[in-house]
Amino acid sequence: MKKVGNHNSISRKLFLGLALSLIFSLTSFAQEAAPAVTDAAAAPAAATGGDAVKGKELFNANCAACHKLDAKATGPALRGVAGKYDMPWLYKWIKNSSDLIKSGDAQAVKVFEENNKAVMSAFPQLSDADIDNIIAYTSEPKAEAPAPAAGGAEAVPGTTPSDGGVSNNIILGALALVMVILVVMLFLVNQVLSKVAKANGIVTVPKTPTTPIWKAFARNQFLVLVTSIFLLLASAYFVYGYLMQVGVDQDYAPIQPIHYSHKIHAGDNEINCKYCHSAARVSKNAGIPSLNVCMNCHKNIAEVAETTATPEYSKAFYDEQIQKLYTAVGWDKTTQSYTGKTQPVKWVRIHNLPDFVYFNHSQHVTVAGIECQTCHGPVQEYEIQKQFAPLTMGWCIDCHRKTDVKMEGNEYYTKIHDELSKKYGVDKLTAAQMGGLECGKCHY
Q1: pLDDT by residue (tens digit) across 299-316?
Q2: pTM of this prediction?
Q3: Which of 224, 278, 399, 409 has the smallest C-beta neighbourhood within 10 Å, fewest atoms?
Q4: Which residues cross the membrane (predicted)?
Q5: Residue 101, SS3?
């Protein structure tokens, strides 16, 4: 009997490959994060016997504007304050610190001077019980950071953990391994069949040589002509499209020296666009907000909430951006004072019209009442600000043709509107019908 190959060897190879694949899959699915162990024991009650839950509500309503639990703000950090001062003194200090300082109380004067002589608001409306609740809240121990998941690795950008804890990369890796095993199997089967054919004297019929397709194409003059015309027209189309995009920066989203999230400010916190870009209401330019505008809020907001973090940007990342702001304006959050050492922030401009184009923000924002999102897109959803519209001449003209002029409360347009509405036979006039397409409106 003629040998046609070692089938047992091939079988062992196949079974070994399948076994490795199975072991790899089981290991991946078994890797689940260890459940976080929490201590259900209640925090020790404050010496005052107050209610920490009610104290948190009172703290957020009355104290959080100037104080934090674990960091200095306008006032000192308040966690554990009950261990530093007597309760009778705290009652007097919270209800009216100014009177206590004027009385010459040594401890009150010391606290006043240690905090840059910042005057603390008086809270005579708070009862002793309310203060006990606040002190109970400030006496709670600081929550420990959650233990890292098994393996100690943070989520890698670009991966989405599934319910079983297996990332897409692992699944794709397992599929790639299966594909490699199938290719090896096909190669081995081809070798076995070749050996069987050779052992049985089977001769394969050689392929009949044919004319290469490129030679057949070159010999057909009509097909060459049609193809050439098609390629010329297609090339002209793409070249024209490319040239028409020169100077159009739609979707341009540069990286800024300080990461500013419109999603957090305009979206989550619902800050009006014109609070920061106040010049847009009265000026040609919207203007870049002064860093002092940022400090109106961030003087007391040195870090973001835990819930602000996203899979792409961690809490530490956002806190670092606030620190960049402090460095730029020269703010020392420890002493709550300006150092006088400032650094310029070199913002990267996003929207940039040509010099020969005139555009007035106040005309559109104040007079026309157009929302910022009309031209700048849903900025409240942008983590990184980008150019939403193409800002081309055609885009502006199309808007003037479709947008009705705002007449309510605008006596300047009343007479013009009455005359032109009769001329055009319409009730509402568009910006184009009011002269919005005249060259001198935008080019002068």
Answers
A1: 989 999 889 999 999 999
A2: 0.59
A3: 409
A4: 170-189, 222-243
A5: helix
